[in-house]
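Postdoc handover notes: sequence design on the structure in folder B. Input tokens:
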């Protein structure tokens, strides 16, 4: 995925809180206490999840043949800044055979919350700019997915989630943050700046 992976550390009460990612905790509301392991495609050996749907998404990522790598970014591993300058750390960063994805999993009741939409705008704009910049070097495009928890089912596929939940920046958002540099006398390409 291009950046250096930084070590992650987790606080735990002992090995009784380490479990295979395919095994949900007995009390799903206590999922944050657990450290999960057993990943083949994960960039890290261990991961923590904020919800059981996040754990289920890891199962989808692990079994989907199109997924090459995925990670739950740790602190300071992958941040996007929203229009208020607040850092946003996405739930998942994924590389597939055809693209790179930022995936955020939210409760249905949070899908239209102002903060969620502000972060979604920032991430979709980031993906747009990263795709344009990478296209010059033949890199895979980036897409942002905002997925409601109810749509994270173990029998789903990444391409299905991508087809249903990709959020692209709208024209208004692009017009506020993207501009074309003036044409140079040599006729060079315009640049996108975000």
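Designed sequence:
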């Amino acid at each position: 995925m291009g950046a250096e992976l930084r070590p992650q550390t987790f606080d735990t009460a002992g090995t009784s809180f380490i479990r295979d990612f395919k095994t949900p905790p007995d009390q799903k509301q206590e999922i944050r206490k657990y450290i999960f392991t057993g990943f083949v495609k994960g960039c890290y050996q261990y991961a923590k999840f904020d919800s059981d749907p996040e754990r289920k998404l890891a199962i989808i990522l692990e079994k989907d043949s199109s997924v090459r790598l995925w990670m739950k970014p740790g602190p300071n591993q992958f941040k996007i800044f929203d229009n208020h300058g607040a850092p946003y750390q996405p739930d998942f960063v994924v590389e597939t055979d055809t693209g790179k994805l930022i995936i955020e999993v939210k409760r249905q009741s949070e899908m239209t919350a102002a903060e969620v939409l502000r972060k979604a705008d920032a991430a979709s704009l980031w993906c747009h700019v990263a795709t344009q910049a990478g296209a010059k070097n033949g890199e895979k495009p980036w897409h942002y997915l905002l997925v409601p928890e109810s749509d994270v089912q173990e029998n789903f596929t990444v391409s299905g989630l991508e087809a249903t939940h990709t959020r692209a920046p709208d024209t208004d958002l692009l017009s506020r943050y993207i501009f074309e540099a003036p044409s140079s006398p040599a006729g060079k390409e315009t640049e996108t700046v975000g």
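Context for whoever picks this up: Confidence is low (pLDDT under 50) at residues 180-194. Don't rerun without checking with the PI first.
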